[in-house]
From TrEMBL:
<dbReference type="InterPro" id="IPR000873">
    <property type="entry name" value="AMP-dep_synth/lig_dom"/>
</dbReference>
<dbReference type="GO" id="GO:0005811">
    <property type="term" value="C:lipid droplet"/>
</dbReference>
<dbReference type="GO" id="GO:0005524">
    <property type="term" value="F:ATP binding"/>
</dbReference>
<keyword id="KW-0547">Nucleotide-binding</keyword>
<dbReference type="GO" id="GO:0005324">
    <property type="term" value="F:long-chain fatty acid transmembrane transporter activity"/>
</dbReference>
<dbReference type="InterPro" id="IPR025110">
    <property type="entry name" value="AMP-bd_C"/>
</dbReference>
<keyword id="KW-0436">Ligase</keyword>
<comment type="similarity">
    <text>Belongs to the ATP-dependent AMP-binding enzyme family.</text>
</comment>
<feature type="domain" description="AMP-dependent synthetase/ligase">
    <location>
        <begin position="59"/>
        <end position="414"/>
    </location>
</feature>
<feature type="domain" description="AMP-binding enzyme C-terminal">
    <location>
        <begin position="533"/>
        <end position="636"/>
    </location>
</feature>
<dbReference type="GO" id="GO:0005777">
    <property type="term" value="C:peroxisome"/>
</dbReference>
<keyword id="KW-0067">ATP-binding</keyword>
<protein>
    <submittedName>
        <fullName>Uncharacterized protein</fullName>
    </submittedName>
</protein>
<dbReference type="Pfam" id="PF13193">
    <property type="entry name" value="AMP-binding_C"/>
</dbReference>
<dbReference type="Pfam" id="PF00501">
    <property type="entry name" value="AMP-binding"/>
</dbReference>
<dbReference type="GO" id="GO:0004467">
    <property type="term" value="F:long-chain fatty acid-CoA ligase activity"/>
</dbReference>
<dbReference type="InterPro" id="IPR045851">
    <property type="entry name" value="AMP-bd_C_sf"/>
</dbReference>
């Protein structure tokens, strides 16, 4: 055999061996994830070595590199990097004039806007800490959030004035000064319009030289008069003292249960996460990233927007998510990457097919919570080639990452091949008791028991604070709640891990899958039922626009019976606008039900459930909601009230159905309720 033939044979053998190794261990799948982590780690180490830790400096690097390129597009207006630097500098000087010092906290109650980013940058610029307050909360929950933040100042959008005004006395008692970011002339104009009749307005505008009538404004807040202040940048020396473990922002949990908790987003995490995620998603200078998520959450602010400070990409920011505007914006602004969370992708799929579905240039969707039942449907319909799904915790260490191309890893929230497991060993799935929510320990050793492939258990993250990857930040000003998340002596004496409260499982290939929240999984007929899996199964029905599953108490029964609240697409339950409220300006809506189509769907639902679910997992009660399911700002369904109402006919006004002993769904009313309460009906 010739030397050339021998070499060719050896090459072919090496390629074949490499293919088999990759098929077995998934090196090609984990390489983009490893690369993203290494790029971020290198930047982290450089910043730490040169005392250059403030994440504001990452923004400033882009200002110096590309001052006149577009950094942000909001509602059709483009803002260059230099524009944002100048405006944020003016606001920074205003903050300093009001006595805000390094380390002070400033609470921000605002909607998505360019000004949101300007204020955030201004606070970072002077080494302060921004507390992002959820703009959907009010009353006691708002006061709780402000009390936890213990900030000096509250800055708010004037359109959120009613929320602030409702609790103004309590906010004052917490020691807050209050300012609106909305320009004074805009506020005065708003009050003029609201306090005069159309005739008076016409008379006012037709009288040349006549002064605007005096408008009496509430006196508990001031205006941020920054426009005439200096735009001179705040030097880096002002931020030289900042360390990687210093807080950059406080970002609150969604509050699906209980009051929100303030997770500490430190400068180290804000350095690592945006660069890691941006690199893995392939985002670079010249790309346009569409963000419709609320900026008061970590996903929108840190993963979505702050990645541009690492990559130099352009952010296309929406005030809020809109199904109607989504693909139009993607086309108009040449969007290349979109961020999703929760059910956002399902909302897009539920919309009727349109001419813009595949004419956009979106190549990557990144986010968390894309459900397996719509993953491929979303890609097929909208032509999005790559899905970058991740699992991360605002308050804890570790993350699971899955860059899925060509259908590989479909439905997985993360992938951990042998190299990733070796470099980052601090994530384990352990056995847990679903009812008591306690970890199961080996009676001989007293240590926790790691789950085998395919077994569902609770995900734990190493939190011993020995390395940055295992550093546990917890919640700001809430030591008891922070401590409650920790567990010791898990795998060896003296170790410490954080309980995520999430149930996951992994397969033999290294893919990790989300099963459920520990509190959402319930036990029925001596079996554990995952609400996430049932939601995914019901979600495969074309008629279902929205779905949430939960367990409800049944008198005389052990465990909890499954109940599903469904929102059906137009055609079965149709939403018809019949007018507009003169008082609030909101649409008046009536819901029309096609009884024949509803009956057909209920029959189909019963057959589908019996075919694709184990008997114990079939929801015993179905509730047909005529309104959208209530969600958090990140599209997580709120189940607390639904769970409390259960199948109580005094509380539920929606139509209900129950799973009869004959194995089908029939209407549920007073007679059926009496049969269950008296124990005469078998569920």
């Amino acid at each position: 055999m010739s030397v050339l033939a021998t070499a060719a044979k050896a090459t072919a053998g090496a390629v074949a061996a490499g293919y088999l190794m990759d098929k077995q261990f998934g090196f090609s799948h984990e390489w983009p994830i490893l690369r993203g982590g290494m790029v971020a780690r290198k930047k982290f180490q450089q910043c730490e070595a040169t005392q250059d830790c403030s994440i504001y400096n990452r923004f400033e690097e882009q200002v110096l590199a590309r001052p006149y390129e577009v950094a942000l597009v909001f509602e059709g207006v483009s803002h260059t990097w230099k524009d944002m630097e100048l405006v944020s500098s003016k606001i920074a000087h205003w903050l300093l004039s009001k006595g805000i010092q390094p380390g002070d906290r400033v609470a921000l109650l605002m909607n998505n806007s360019a000004m949101f980013m300007h204020v955030f940058l201004a606070v970072l610029k002077i080494a302060g800490v921004t507390a992002f307050i959820n703009n959907q909360i009010s009353g006691p929950i708002l006061i709780h959030s402000l009390k936890v933040a213990d900030a000096k100042m509250l800055i708010f959008d004037y359109e959120l004035l009613p929320t602030v005004q409702e609790s103004v006395q309590e906010i004052k008692e917490l020691g807050y000064s209050m300012y609106t970011i909305t320009p004074k002339e805009q506020v005065l104009g708003h009050h003029f319009v609201m306090s005069t009749t159309p005739t008076q307005q016409q008379q006012q505008h037709s009288t040349e030289g006549q002064a605007m009538p005096s408008v009496v404004l509430p006196d508990f807040f001031g205006f941020i008069d920054y426009k005439d202040l200096s735009s001179k940048t705040i030097p880096r020396e002002y931020r030289k003292h900042i360390k990687m473990d210093d807080p950059a922002a406080l970002i609150y949990t969604s509050g699906t249960t209980g009051f929100p908790k303030a997770a500490i987003m430190d400068h180290g995490r804000c350095t690592l996460a945006p660069r890691t995620f941006g690199t893995i998603a392939g985002i670079k200078n010249g790309d346009h990233v569409y963000i419709t998520l609320p900026l008061y959450h970590a996903a929108g602010a840190m993963i979505g927007v702050a990645q541009s400070w690492a990559t130099g990409s352009t952010i296309v920011l929406a005030r809020k998510f809109s199904v109607k505007r989504f693909w139009r914006d993607c086309v108009d602004y040449n969007v290349t990457h979109i961020q999703y969370i929760g059910e956002l992708c399902r909302y897009l799929l539920n919309a009727p097919p349109g001419p813009l579905d595949r004419v956009h240039n979106v190549k990557v969707a990144f986010g968390n919570g894309l459900r397996p039942d719509i993953w491929k449907k979303f890609q097929d319909r909208f032509g999005v080639q790559t899905i970058f799904e991740y699992y991360a915790m605002s308050e804890g260490p570790g993350a699971l990452l899955n860059l899925s191309r060509n259908g590989k890893g479909l439905g997985a929230v993360g992938f951990r091949g042998p190299l990733i497991r070796r470099m980052q060993p601090g994530l384990r799935i352990v056995r847990a008791d679903i009812d008591s929510e306690q970890l199961i320990r080996d009676p001989k050793t007293g240590f926790c028991i790691e789950c085998s492939n395919g077994d569902i258990g609770e995900l734990l993250a190493l939190a011993d604070n020995k390395t940055y990857n295992s550093r546990y930040t917890g919640y700001f000003n809430q030591p008891k709640v922070s401590k409650a998340k920790l567990v010791q002596n898990v795998f060896q004496k003296g170790d410490q891990w954080m309980r995520t409260g999430d149930l996951l499982y992994k397969d033999s290939k290294g893919f990790y899958y989300f099963a459920d929240r520990a509190g959402d999984t319930y036990r029925w007929k001596s079996e554990n039922v995952s609400t996430t899996e049932i939601e995914a199964t019901l979600g495969r029905l074309d008629e279902v626009a929205g779905c949430t599953v939960y367990g409800v108490q049944v008198q005389g029964q052990d465990g909890r019976a499954g109940m599903a609240t469904l929102v059906l697409k137009d055609g079965i339950v149709s939403r018809v606008v019949v007018g507009v409220s003169e008082k609030s300006g909101e649409e008046k809506v009536e819901y029309h039900v096609d009884e024949h189509k509803l009956a057909q769907f209920i029959h189909k639902l019963g057959e589908h459930s019996a075919k694709y679910m184990p008997g114990y997992a079939i929801p015993r009660f179905i509730r047909i909601s005529e309104q959208e399911l209530e969600t958090t700002g990140t599209f997580k369904n709120r189940k607390v009230d639904l769970r409390k109402e259960g199948f109580d006919l005094d509380k539920v006004r929606d139509r209900m159905y129950w799973w009869t002993p004959e194995g089908r769904y029939l209407p549920f009313g007073v007679a059926e309720n009496r049969m269950i309460v008296e124990g005469r009906a078998r569920l």
